[in-house]
Give the backbone structure.
Amino acid sequence: MFRDARIVAAKDLQIEWRSRVTFSQVVPFATLVLVLFGFALDANRPVLERATSGLFWITVMFVSTLAVQRSTSIETSDGARRALLLAGIEPAAVYAGKTAAVAVQLLLVQVVLVAGVVVLFGAEIEAWGLLISTCVVATVGIAGAGTLFGALVAGVRARETVLPILLLPVLAPVLIGATRAFDDAFGSVAVDGWSWLGLLAGFGIINLVLGSLSYGVLLEET
């Protein structure tokens, strides 16, 4: 299973590397969103500093819908989804591989976004360990839920608009928990970021378990 998951993840990442979609479209989009937030709130600098964590994760949510849509389109084009079924790869391995590929892309974007909030918003990172842990744990939850919902809407003709409507409300716990953890990492609000990180971990585990159990059914139906 782990070998098959690595194969699926490597396939998706190689496709992204050759197409350069992440670097040529997703990263500029994420940076542009941060810049626009900065322009909108720059007149009130204290508000911008307090809102940095929330703005960061809202941007990640927007980017995640693009990454999931791209991941879904890879399997829906040219009968690739059917080929995976015929190859005899376990659906759970397909789910794990595609989740890993989406997570890697989101983490790369977040590296750019962290640099962006430091440069553009003047954020000061006081707890690097908490910040990195939050990025990793939250990204796993986002990628897990995104991959599952991507398969759910794969057969829908208007999936580009349906996916954000379904996915973003489900990711609300990630937005809240990751924002609170980042508030602690930036030192902008006195909260226990590690407790929020534990809640994020629970959300991620639930998504991964549900995805592993139900992805096969969705894969066959679509």
